[in-house]
Amino acid sequence: MDKGYNQPGAWAVIYCATTGKFLMGKRSAKVNKAGAWNLFGGRIDNGERPRQALVRELGEEAGLNIKPQHLAKLCTVSRRLRPGQAERDMHYYVVKAEREFSPRLNRETATSAGSPPSNSRPDSTCRQRCPSSRACSGKRPATERLK
Fold it and tell me: Residue 57 belongs to what H/E stretch?
C-alpha cells in the first residue's frame, strides 16, 4: 500500500539568526512516526508548486502566514525510498527568523523546540523567533499575518 511516501514534499529549515537555533516540531501520537523530531512541511498536493505547498504546510502545522518570496531555496534532493519505486523529490527551503514567537501547532505536532546547530537534540527551553526580519516587531503575536 502506497501511503504517499513517493509524493514530492517541501520542508522549511527555520533558523533563528539571533540565537543560532533551528525550530523543530515533535510529531504527535496521532500521526505516523510519532515522537520523531521533524522540520515543518509535508507533501506537495497535485497542481501545487513546492513554495506554494510549503506556505500551506507552514500555515497548517505552525500557524505561520509567510509569503513565498520569504522562502530561500536550499536544495532539492531526489531519492528512491524503496527498490522499484519512483524517485521522490524533496524540496528544502530556509526561513530566517529574527523575533521571538511560539508556533501555533496542529494535531500533527505535539511540541516544538529550538536546537543549536551543534546539538542533535532540541533544547526545550529555547524561545523561537518570527520567520522574517521584516515580518514582525517584538510586540506582535506569531499568529498575526507576516509581511
Answer: helix 50-62
CATH superfamily of 9-130: Nucleoside Triphosphate Pyrophosphohydrolase (3.90.79.10)
Separation CA 78–CA 27 (nearest Å): 24
CA 71 and chain centroid, separation:
11
Note the pTM of the prediction, 2 decimals.
0.70
All cell numbers assigned to 111: 511540541
> Which three-class secondary structure state does DSSP give residue 53?
helix
Give residue-wise pLDDT tens across range 116-133: 444 434 333 333 333 333
Cα 83 to its chain centre, rounded Å, is: 28
The residues spanned by each domain of the chain are 9-130
Nearest in space to 95 (alpha carbons), one of 128, 124, 73: 73
Which amino acid, residue 104? R
CA 60 to chain CA centroid, Å, is 10
CB 32 within 8 Å of CB 114: no
Is residue 110 predicted with pLDDT exceeding 50? yes
For the chain, what percentages of helix, strand and coil (3-state, to nearest 5) are there?
Answer: 10, 35, 55
